[in-house]
Specification:
Helix content: over 70%
Number of helices: 13
Oligomer: single chain
Shape: globular
Strand order of the largest sheet: 1-2
Mean pLDDT: 90
Number of strands: 2
Length: 281
């Protein structure tokens, strides 16, 4: 347990420090900042540079964190940087002509290659690549790759309100980290701690409505937590994880997570924690 705790603390500290340093560096350049400027749900200006800062910070931390075998370290870099780069492409060049998993795949079936379709297929490929580095056999590779890619996509579906995607990441990744420490699994502890530390370090700007993870950050956060989960769970647990991710993704095509959260007292309280009050209608 002591070793797992030590590696978790080191991974979280490295992730937090690297993400803060990256965010400071990226937001210092006004030309870069203008390319990543957007309007949030209130119509107020924010920056999406939080996403690249998360990707860079978690990447540096994954490269330096103790307790990661070379293949696992490479898997973390591939999952985080790969999904983050594809998310950044969608952030910068994406269109809204097609929306949702179904919308992008339907457009692709018509011969229209949307930025979302590129991201879906690309994250699927990077998820499989990362899974191949940590899996035993083709079946595990497919299951783990689908879970990593699905988690990357699902995390992005929550990045619609200040702090929401990071809170979901902390609430789902936190128990995974605790389990890894209790079971003295230093590898998983380090894998989970890196993105959690980076995300927590960027939470103040997110809650303050100054920045958002965007596709780049949310995809990378989900992918890294998915990778950590598949290294900890047995096959039954990984199948449950994959089924849950698939069910929530399918549900998002029909229902609004924002409306569901707003309609539930407990979820809404968690969602509003640390945020500005909702503007009166």
């Amino acid at each position: 347990m002591a070793r797992g705790l030590l590696y978790a603390l080191a991974g979280a500290a490295l992730g937090a420090a690297a993400a803060r340093a990256a965010y400071t560096a990226f937001t210092r350049d006004k030309d870069t900042g203008s390319r990543w400027a957007r309007k949030n749900h209130r119509g107020e200006p924010i920056t999406l540079l939080e996403g690249p800062a998360f990707v860079a910070g978690s990447g540096v931390a994954a490269a330096l964190a103790p307790g990661l075998p070379p293949r696992v370290r490479l898997a973390a870099l591939l999952a985080g940087a790969g999904s983050g780069a594809l998310g950044a492409y969608d952030d910068l060049y994406g269109t809204t002509s097609s929306k949702g998993f179904k919308g992008h795949l339907t457009a692709l079936a018509r011969g229209e290659v949307t930025s979302g379709a590129v991201k879906i297929l690309g994250i699927g490929a990077t998820g499989l690549g990362a899974a191949a580095l940590v899996s035993r056999g083709p079946v595990d590779t497919v299951v783990n790759g689908a879970a990593i890619a699905g988690a990357a996509n699902l995390a992005n579906l929550f990045d619609l309100r200040p702090g929401r995607a990071i809170k979901v990441g902390l609430l789902t990744g936190g128990p995974l980290l605790v389990a890894a420490v209790v079971r003295d699994s230093p590898m998983t502890a380090a894998l989970a701690a890196v993105p959690l530390g980076a995300a927590a370090a960027l939470l103040p700007e997110d809650l303050g409505e100054q920045a958002m993870l965007g596709d780049a950050g949310a995809n990378a956060l989900g992918a890294l937590l998915g990778l950590a989960a598949v290294t900890q769970l047995g096959r039954p647990g990984r199948l449950v994880l994959l089924g849950t991710v698939a069910a929530l993704t399918a549900a998002s095509e029909k229902i609004s997570f924002t409306k569901v959260i707003a309609g539930n007292r407990v979820l809404n309280r968690l969602d509003m924690l640390g945020r500005r009050p909702v503007d009166p209608v």
